[in-house]
C-alpha cells in the first residue's frame, strides 16, 4: 500500500510539528504557534481551558474560540494528541503511539513508552481473534506515596 512520506516522518519536536502544518497546507498563524509552543514547553496534558488560561497568563493575545478551533484542527491532523479524561478532552504534544501513567493524587497524566513482550500480544490475539497492530496502556498510581518519598 502506498503511504505518503508525510505520515512517516514522526513529530519529535516543535519544529517537526510546525513543518507538518506547512506540509499539510495549514496556515501557521501566531495563535497556532502559541498553542504548539505551550504544549511542547509544559510536557503535560492540558484542557482547552488550561491552555487558554496559561497563554493569557503569559500575555499572549488569543481568544477562547481560537484556542478551541486550533486544538480541533491540530488534533484532527494528528499533529497533537487528544485524549478523553473524566468527560474532558486533554491535549498533549506527543502524537505518536504511547502509553499513559495517571497520577491519582496530582491528577497529572505522564507519557511513557512501554513495549509488551511478544508473548503477551500473542495471548491477546488468541483470546480475541483480533490481530494487534498497536496498543496503548493506562497505568494508575500515586505520585506522593510513601514508597516514592524514600527515594528522595
Ligand atoms: Zn500522551
What is the CATH topology assignment of the largest domain?
Answer: Arc Repressor Mutant, subunit A
CATH class of the largest domain: Mainly Alpha
The major beta sheet can be summarized as: 3 strands, antiparallel
Question: Taking all residues together, what is the mean pLDDT?
Answer: 90
Structural class: alpha+beta
Overall 3D shape: globular
Bound molecules: zinc ion
Which band does the percent of strand residues land in?
A: 15-25%
Question: Under the CATH scheme, which architecture of the largest domain would be assigned?
Answer: Orthogonal Bundle
- What number of structural domains do the residues give? 2
Structure description:
With 152 residues, this protein is an alpha+beta fold. The protein folds into two domains: 5-92, Arc Repressor Mutant, subunit A (Orthogonal Bundle); 99-149, Dna Ligase, domain 1 (2-Layer Sandwich), CATH 3.30.1490. The chain is built from six helices and six strands, in the order H-H-E-H-H-E-E-E-E-H-E-H. The protein has helices at residues 14-23, 30-42, 48-57, 64-76, 118-128, 146-149, and strands at residues 46-47, 81-85, 88-92, 99-103, 109-112, 138-141. The strands form two sheets. It has a three-stranded antiparallel beta sheet. The protein has a three-stranded mixed beta sheet with strand order 5-4-6, with no helix packed on it. Helix 3 packs across helix 4. It is globular and about 50 Å long. The termini are far apart. It binds zinc ion.
Amino acid at each position: 500500500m502506498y503511504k505518503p512520506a508525510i505520515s512517516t516522518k514522526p513529530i519529535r519536536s516543535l519544529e517537526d510539528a510546525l513543518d507538518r502544518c506547512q506540509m499539510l497546507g495549514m496556515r501557521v498563524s501566531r495563535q497556532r504557534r502559541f498553542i504548539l509552543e505551550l504544549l511542547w514547553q509544559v510536557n503535560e496534558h492540558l484542557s482547552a481551558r488550561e491552555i487558554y488560561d496559561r497563554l493569557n497568563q503569559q500575555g499572549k493575545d488569543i481568544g477562547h474560540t481560537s484556542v478551541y478551533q486550533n486544538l480541533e484542527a491540530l488534533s484532527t491532523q494528528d499533529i497533537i494528541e487528544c485524549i478523553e479524561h473524566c468527560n474532558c478532552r486533554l491535549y498533549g504534544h506527543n502524537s505518536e503511539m504511547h502509553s499513559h501513567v495517571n497520577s491519582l493524587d496530582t491528577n497529572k497524566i505522564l507519557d511513557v513508552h512501554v513495549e509488551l513482550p511478544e508473548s503477551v500480544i500473542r495471548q491477546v490475539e488468541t483470546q480475541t481473534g483480533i490481530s494487534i497492530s498497536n496498543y496503548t496502556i493506562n497505568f494508575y498510581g500515586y505520585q506522593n506515596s510513601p514508597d516514592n518519598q524514600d527515594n528522595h
